[in-house]
Amino acid sequence: MPLYENQELKIYNSLSGEKEVFKPLTDGYVGMYVCGPTVYSNVHLGNCRTFISFDLVFRYLKHLGYKVRYVRNITDAGHLENDAETGEDRIAKKARLEEIEPMEVVQKYTVDFHNILYKFNNLPPSIEPTATGHIVEQIEIIKEIIDKGFAYEANGSVYFDVLKYNESNHYGILSGRKLEDMIANTRELAAQDDKKNPQDFALWKKAEPQHIMRWPSPWSVGFPGWHLECTVMSSKYLGDEFDIHGGGMDLKFPHHECEIAQGQAATGKNPVNYWMHANMLTLNGKKMAKSTGNNILPKELFSGDNDVLSKSYSPSIARFFMLQANYRSILDFSDEALGAAEKGFHKLMDAVALIPNLPTSKNSSVAIAEWKQKCYDAMNDDFNSPVLIANLFEAVKIINAVEAKKATLTAEDLKELKESIHSFIFDVLGLEAVTALENNQDSERLANVVELLIELRAKARANRDFETGDKIRDELAANGILLKDSKEGTTFSL
Ligand code: AMP
Ligand code: ZN
């Protein structure tokens, strides 16, 4: 019997503002869509937090036994600067600045994104579609929305008619906004604007002569509006109605609001059952963002090469730090907080390492089954990872007490403790044990030490002290570090 039959998972649904019991549309199967990155720059730690939050969701759903189809897109076209309807395409702008093809920009930052998420031990999504790979589908859905009367063409561009939509639907249903308030708070349309109303948003934009990313369409040579790709790619791979849609809190409005409107307008169905929004990572109390420069890059974290940091931190420590906060809470990044997370992480991992050698007894003085259910209760409560981690520290206390012979466990309970700890730490939280060599700074230090030993060995050999030279080589080899002599000098491999 799959675990989900015994566990009642509740998810905080941004649409209702309440924790709701999770019931997928099809028993045993979950369709989940998460907005992916706009690949015009290196991802910062803020972006990573959101993707780690949804990796936790993906992992836990899988752990419960669901067959999950996780779709996360790559935005490689259509995202204009400042999320506005005007200005340059972010990718095209970068291509112009770097004097490369837009698709080179896309390739470079998609590779970076994958590498970084791999380092954080995020599982890859089941499908990772791109906006440029779905232009045809985007044109088709625009036609449908026009046919249903919810969009209009103006001067080669197509706009979603928000006022018309709001007559029979609620534009603002997700963000809790009222269209009247939005209208009252917006400025007049600029004279050159083709929209009927300032609230209308672009489904298709006619390309200005300088706009390099462009495709033919029935209306003009142009490009799709940013919100459209997610509607198209989620419905293509998950259906017109699916279970979970996620993204950062900052995407709730207008991006996700527009997604609901587009889906509802095209199909007459509410596309998403559970909307999940991950909260922001801040630095000095302000949102980490590319545009303001208030951010830290993962590579700076792994090397310690940033003034905010006193040292380097491994990806697993950073992941642990992030998961110690609830995904719906704001989390402030600081060197002290990471240092504290590192201590906690090692305490946890040290206890895990003790498990295989713990003594067993005829009776248990601790209730392991209850402890295990408390771990599930935490995760069932809207993926509450900080409470799960608190329970794992309860297990650390149990392990240390058994070690010190102040508590006892039967062989069966010990096995259950071990299996549960392993599955929660490694499968659900996705943490990895940090070894010295995985830690970049440590491996850099190690390389420096090996270089020094190579130098000392060369000196010894020059002085015909072959005994010392051989000893250095053999001792290094015994530790898995192999020296290779050649005409150019000595190199080593770890
Ligand atoms: P973008 O590439 O700008 O579309 O962002 C990719 C994802 O990162 C989106 O889901 C954003 O909501 C999310 N994001 C951006 N900044 C932060 C931040 N400071 N903390 C957490 N998530 C963020
Ligand atoms: Zn999206």
Q: How would you describe the overall organization of this protein?
A:
This is Cysteine--tRNA ligase. Its EC number is 6.1.1.16. Keywords: Ligase. The protein is of the alpha/beta class and 494 residues long. It has 3 domains: 3-278, 3-Layer(aba) Sandwich (Rossmann fold); 282-437, Isoleucyl-tRNA Synthetase, Domain 1 (Orthogonal Bundle), CATH 1.10.730; 442-493, no CATH class. It is 45% helix and 14% strand. It contains 16 helices and 15 strands. The strands form 5 sheets. The chain has a 4-stranded parallel beta sheet, with helices on both faces. The protein has a 4-stranded antiparallel beta sheet with strand order 5-6-7-8. It starts with 9 loop residues before the first strand and ends with a strand. The mean pLDDT is 93. The structure holds adenosine monophosphate and zinc ion.
Question: Which keywords apply here?
Answer:
alpha/beta, 4-stranded antiparallel sheet, globular, binds zinc ion, 4-stranded parallel sheet, Isoleucyl-tRNA Synthetase, Domain 1, binds adenosine monophosphate, 494 residues, Rossmann fold
